[in-house]
Write a structure and sequence with these properties.
The chain has helices at 3-23, 36-43, 49-52, 60-63, 74-79, 81-87, 122-135, 153-160, 220-235, 282-296, 310-315, 340-351, 369-373, 379-390, 421-426, 468-473, 478-491, 493-497; strands at 55-58, 91-94, 138-144, 172-173, 194-197, 202-205, 240-244, 260-264, 270-272, 300-303, 326-327, 358-360, 396-400, 499-503, 510-517, 520-527, 533-535, 550-555, 569-571, 576-581. The termini are far apart. By secondary structure, it is of the alpha/beta class. The radius of gyration is 24 Å and the shape is globular. The strands form five sheets. It has an eight-stranded parallel beta sheet. The chain has a five-stranded antiparallel beta sheet with strand order 14-15-16-20-18. A three-stranded antiparallel beta sheet has the order 4-6-5, with no helix packed on it. It binds 1-deoxynojirimycin (NOJ).
Length: 583
């Protein structure tokens, strides 16, 4: 088949998919079937789908291996859609599965419009989309906007000569002198952010690895090509994108040096304050344009937005809500202790921002929450407590695969075992991100049932107890707790659309809040301490009588000995109490 035939075959597939959606009465990113509970919930509300949805991030290398070669794949994901549906997932975000030399495990893309053969084919991907639609599960792709792989044909052309057609698609500059980069910018993955290339005796810029040259977003042709790749996937039925590294799209055109702070970072480099190569205002112009394209397809844009404060995060929603639908609030992930006051501060800040909050506990770059919050004694209980928190707040949660099992990090023990290049560079201070990317734990057989071949990363030893099959049978497991909370979240108007009011905000041990909508009140009470707590909820300002009856919906441990709001409410260590309050 020549290129023209491939292109027309692709166009035909896209056309068939579009017709299929139209015939079923759905917009392009609207799945055709939903469970009864989800249907009734969304029918009652005018909220856009992504506000009611639960998102689930999965790392394709590690989720499910259909061909038993030790690497996960697209058909593996498709085979687990029923598991995800039963869990209560509405959309999956797949980290990059495009063709890639895999230096940064997919975040170095060499073809934006295909699937890496390691993971399958476009036909496999189309099947995933359509099987997802049957179950009401949308597919979100990862859009690596800032850089390509150095093996991408665009870069190969760009580096070939100073007059190459795509020379200006990347950032090429003269050095300050022989062997001297154009300025003092440091790559976030170690060393200078400039690499000298002997072919044309110039340096190119790379914020991440040298194998990930930055695209020049000031070039309109780059914008056009990149926007078109999003259209390619929307036409295949993709419901949106998670945008990688949006902060770093633009650089100061004069390439001014960054100020240098005292000390050295974990890779031994000077610490530069990235004021000239991150968060430039031009980022927002591009996000608005990208949003325009997404709106043509009713798609959602989720941002990898690392911000220092809420004002910065607010800018990513756009002045008129015309940039990202869902910028992630990573400040929430930085509360690395069970501190009600710290969580309150973050929750109140994002709730007052005017934007729709997006909560994440961990991901493929952030150590697993089981590790970060566990005290070594009550870890399973704490995993439930954290689930009860981020799944009942006002906003959209993005889960990370395996969190629902209580998966732990499995950090490499020896430098020679490390796969993530920054782990080799930073060893032993920084062991890289392998630990949070290990295979999903499906059962207690060899390799956690992920594969019959040796997996690309070793499974975490806790798979013997923390796995889908065993937790499925245990009514008290973390998995079944997640299922219960997610089911409640899909059914209860107060959790879907309700406002958020903090209760007992001075309590140093217990985080409590009220969610209410359509005359329904729900309270969430979380004991973040290792001691039993007995509290009286202060709802005097909330128009709720202390004699109001309580209907417990989800509790951990032995439950709570109270029938009405007058309490007291006795909570076990790390206990969870979620109840409906009648007025
Ligand atoms: C952010 C991604 O989450 C991370 O995994 C990756 O290494 C960098 N961006 C570079 O693409």
């Amino acid at each position: 088949m020549n290129c023209r035939h491939v292109a027309s075959a692709r166009a035909l597939v896209a056309l068939i998919l579009t017709i299929a959606f139209t015939v079923s009465g759905c917009s392009k990113s609207q799945p055709t079937s939903q469970t009864a509970t989800q249907q009734s919930a969304s029918q009652q509300s005018a909220a856009p789908w992504w506000k009611h949805a639960v998102f689930y991030e999965l790392y394709p290398r590690s989720f499910a291996d259909s061909d038993n070669n030790g690497l996960g794949d697209i058909n593996g994901i498709t085979s687990k859609l029923d598991y995800l549906k039963q869990l209560g997932v509405d959309a999956i975000w797949i980290t990059p599965c495009y063709p890639s030399p895999q230096v940064d495990f997919g975040y170095d893309v060499s073809d934006y419009e295909n699937i890496d053969p390691q993971y399958g084919t476009l036909a496999d991907f189309d099947r995933l989309v359509s099987e997802g639609q049957k179950r009401g599960i949308r597919i979100i792709m990862d859009f690596v906007m800032n850089h390509t792989s150095d093996r991408h044909p665009w870069f190969i052309d760009s580096k070939s000569s100073k007059t190459a057609a795509r020379r200006d698609w990347y950032m090429w500059r003269e050095g300050k002198g022989p062997q001297q980069p154009p300025n003092n910018w440091i790559s976030t993955f170690g060393g200078s952010a400039w690499k000298w290339d002997p072919t044309t005796s110039q340096f190119y810029y790379h914020y991440f690895y040298a194998e990930q040259p930055d695209l020049n977003w000031r070039n309109p042709a780059v914008k056009q090509a990149m926007f078109d790749t999003t259209r390619f996937w929307y036409k295949r039925g993709v419901a949106g994108f998670r945008l990688d590294a949006v902060d770093t799209l633009y650089e100061d055109p004069q390439l001014k040096d960054n100020p240098i702070k005292p000390g050295r970072n974990k890779y031994g480099d000077p610490i530069d304050e990235r004021i000239n190569n991150t968060k430039l205002p031009e980022v927002h112009d591009t996000l608005r344009e990208l949003r325009g394209v997404a709106d043509e397809y009713n798609a959602v844009l989720i941002g990898e937005t690392w911000t220092d404060n809420i004002d910065e995060l607010k800018t990513y929603y756009g002045g008129h809500g015309n940039e990202l639908h869902m910028p992630m609030d990573f400040m929430f992930t930085e509360v690395n202790k069970l501190s009600p006051s710290e969580f309150r501060r973050q929750i109140n800040a994002i709730q007052s921002s005017g934007g729709w909050p997006v909560f994440v506990l961990s991901n493929h770059d952030i150590r697993r929450s089981y590790e970060r919050y566990g005290d070594g004694i009550h870890n399973d209980q704490i995993a439930k407590l954290m689930a009860a928190l981020y799944l009942t707040l006002r906003g959209t949660p993005i889960m990370y695969y395996g969190e629902e099992l209580g998966m732990q990090n499995n950090d490499p023990k020896r430098r020679e075992d490390v796969k993530d290049p920054i782990g080799k560079l930073g060893w032993p201070k920084d062991k890289g991100r392998d630990g949070e990317r290990t295979p999903m734990q499906w059962n207690n057989t060899a390799n956690a049932g992920f594969s019959t071949a040796k997996p690309w990363l070793p499974v975490t030893p806790t798979y013997r107890t923390h796995n889908v099959t065993d937790e499925d049978k245990d009514p008290d497991s973390i998995l079944n707790f997640y299922r219960r909370v997610l089911a409640l979240r899909h059914q209860h108007p107060a959790l879907l659309d309700g406002d958020y009011t903090g209760l007992n905000e001075e309590d140093p041990n217990v985080l409590a809040y009220l969610r209410r909508a359509q005359g329904k009140n729900l309270i969430v009470v979380l004991n973040m301490s290792a001691k039993p707590q007995s509290i009286h909820l202060n709802v005097a300002q909330q128009n709720i009588a202390s004699s109001s009856p309580l209907k417990p919906l989800i509790t951990t441990g032995h439950g709570v000995n109270t029938q009405t709001m007058s309490g007291p409410l006795n909570l076990e260590p790390f206990g969870v109490f979620i109840a409906e309050v009648s007025q």
